[in-house]
């Protein structure tokens, strides 16, 4: 294995020199070779078959991800040889498939995997035919490799308009350790423990970028080891021309989503489960945020959540403000009405008195007319009404005195005459 400097800017120098001095008939073959070593490859095989992986000369296999189980219905992918009456399980996968494939293929020029359920440990879904999918790269012998100890920052830099192409990333502890990050004797048992998400997270952060920084700690990669074990982060990469890496990556599937219901976009046929469109857009937005700012998708999620929370807070604040303004306006109006009522109480009393007086006067007239109509004839009533209109009886009484008689009316008439 040939290692390059940490900057990685001279990794592909022999390739560039070859492009300049080799005959023109060699260039197409070399271009295809570059595409092969930079591209993500995906292969699959059904139960009962053998999956063969082969890389070009002077390259070795680097496993990116593995899936063994079933997501796609059998009528669309890998139909079962013997159909049975049991219901097919399209939501099963082996949890040890990736480790098994890495043991057989990692850092080898080629490998062959027999696809049988017993090869991958406990059968995840008995009675259901399964298939194996492997996503891998062919890593050239000429590449860069950089290592930092736990809690240190790994910095990768490419120059001359080249960008990073990540091949491997491991975080944890290898058997017998390493000289750069030695383990103190007696602190913890010497055993291999590696984070299963290291390659995915480093690739998300650095793939296709001119430079990047990654903090090697358990917060970013989890802690796969026992307490006290000294861990490290190792990354192997090359610096490739930007246009070339963009060309090989156009239209390729996502190897780190190989366990989903479309296997990272590798399967585009019928029967594939399509997630809700809004969720896809939201996930892509977080990925774009991570690529632009060089921050984890979790930070992007916190950022978006903070913006949404702020908008909800402003909405509640504006609603509370309008409610308070309306309540204050109503209160001011009620206070104004109360002040107006208490400003001139005498006028209100006089108005009530006048209303009562007019009402009493009307009642008096009605009662007087009713009582007299019961005693006197209509002609005498007319004369008495005319007299009372000219002069009211003493004390405002409408009835004659108690000692008077009906004939007293004649006396009244004689007096008026």
Automatic annotation (TrEMBL):
Which species is this record about?
Synaphobranchus kaupii (Kaup's arrowtooth eel)
Indicate what this protein is called per its UniProt record. SUEL-type lectin domain-containing protein
What CDD domains is this protein classified in? Gal_Rha_Lectin_EVA1_EVA1C_rpt1, Gal_Rha_Lectin_EVA1_EVA1C_rpt2
Show the stretches that span the lipid bilayer: 299-320
- PROSITE patterns reported for this sequence: SUEL_LECTIN
Gene3D superfamilies of this UniProt entry?
A: 2.60.120.740
GO MF term list: carbohydrate binding
A single Gene Ontology CC term? membrane
Give the record's family classification. Answer: Belongs to the EVA1 family.
């Amino acid at each position: 294995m040939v290692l390059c400097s940490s900057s990685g800017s001279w990794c592909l120098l022999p390739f560039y020199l070859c492009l300049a001095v080799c005959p023109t008939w060699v260039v197409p073959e070399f271009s295809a070779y570059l595409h092969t070593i930079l591209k993500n490859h995906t292969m699959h095989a059904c139960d009962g078959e053998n999956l063969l992986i082969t890389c070009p000369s002077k390259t070795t296999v680097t496993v990116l991800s593995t899936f063994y189980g079933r997501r796609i219905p059998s009528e669309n992918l890998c139909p079962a040889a013997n159909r049975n009456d049991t219901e097919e399980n399209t939501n099963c996968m082996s949890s040890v498939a990736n480790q098994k494939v890495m043991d057989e293929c990692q850092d080898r020029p080629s490998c062959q995997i027999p696809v049988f359920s017993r090869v991958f440990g406990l059968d995840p879904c008995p009675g259901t035919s399964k298939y194996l999918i492997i996503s891998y790269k062919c890593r050239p012998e000429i590449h860069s490799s950089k290592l930092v100890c736990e809690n240190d920052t790994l910095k990768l830099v490419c120059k001359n308009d080249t960008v990073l192409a990540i091949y491997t990333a491991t975080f944890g502890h290898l058997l017998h350790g390493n000289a750069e990050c030695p383990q103190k004797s007696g602190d913890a048992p010497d055993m291999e423990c590696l984070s299963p998400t290291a390659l995915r997270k480093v690739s998300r952060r650095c793939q296709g970028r001119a430079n990047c920084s990654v903090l090697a700690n358990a917060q970013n990669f989890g802690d796969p080891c026992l307490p006290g074990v000294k861990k490290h982060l190792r990354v192997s990469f090359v610096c490739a021309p930007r246009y070339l890496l963009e060309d090989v990556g156009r239209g390729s599937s996502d190897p780190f989503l190989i366990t989903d219901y479309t296997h990272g976009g590798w399967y585009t046929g019928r029967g594939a489960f399509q997630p809700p469109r809004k969720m896809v857009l939201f996930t892509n937005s977080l990925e774009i945020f991570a690529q632009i700012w060089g921050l984890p998708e979790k930070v992007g999620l916190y950022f978006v959540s903070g913006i949404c929370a702020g908008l909800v807070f402003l909405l509640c604040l504006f609603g509370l403000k309008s409610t308070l303004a309306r309540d204050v306006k109503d209160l001011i109006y009620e206070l104004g009405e109360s002040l107006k009522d208490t400003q001139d109480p005498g006028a209100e009393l006089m108005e009530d008195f006048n209303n009562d007086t007019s009402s009493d006067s009307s009642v008096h007239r009605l009662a007087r007319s009713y009582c007299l109509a019961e005693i006197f004839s209509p002609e005498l009533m007319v004369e008495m009404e005319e007299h009372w209109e000219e002069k009211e009886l003493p004390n405002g009484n409408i009835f004659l005195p108690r000692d008077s008689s009906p004939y007293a009316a004649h006396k009244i008439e004689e007096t008026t005459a």
